[in-house]
Amino acid sequence: PPPALAPTAPPPPAPAPVTTPPTGLDDVLAVWPAVLDQLRADDMVLGMALAAGRPVELDGRELTIAFAPSDDFKRSKVQAGATAVADAVRSLAGAPVRLRVESRDGIAEAGERGAAAVATEDELVARFVAEFDAEEIDPDEEPDA
Predict the structure, then answer these.
(1) What's the CA angle centered on 87, arms 33 and 85, to 5 degrees?
(2) What values do phi and psi take at 68, rounded to 5?
(3) What is the structure's pLDDT at 135?
């Protein structure tokens, strides 16, 4: 007869989900780059549209994202994807939020932020090397035989 199997202990209970909203806008701003990265990975158009906006207020569980008045298309794209944006914020900030999207004067247009927001070639290569544990190869160097 086959040997008897020892009883296994039940798995530990899953941790309770965090239901406390972020305590302030700074909490959301701390995870904002990760929110943008997650959305770009899931839906590039939504992630790029969201990058044109800026979190400006957190009132309880309501997060306000403001766009320049001329960014109507991007604002409407984010409004249509509000559930996905709120889910990304919840997964990274640890609490559910409702999204409010608005136009607001004083918010720089995406093009105006472009020079500061676009990484240089060296920065992109450095990020790629770091994230993929890669090695940069100079095409002018002779390969080792």
Answers:
(1) 55
(2) -60, 145
(3) 79
- 56: nearest Cα among 44, 39, 68: 68
pLDDT at 107 over 60: yes
Alpha carbons 23 and 59: distance in angstroms, whole number: 9
Cβ-proximal residues to 18 (8 Å cutoff; 6+ apart), any chain: 94, 95
pLDDT, tens digit, 9 for 90 and up, residues 18-57:
445 556 888 889 889 999 999 999 999 999 999 999 999 9
What is 116-141 written as a DSSP string?
A: HHSPPHHHHHHHHHHHHT-----TTS
**Which H helix or E strand runs over 76?**
helix 72-80
Q: How many Å apart are CA 5 and CA 89, to the nearest integer?
A: 45
* pTM check: above 0.70: no
**Rg, the chain, Cα only:** 22
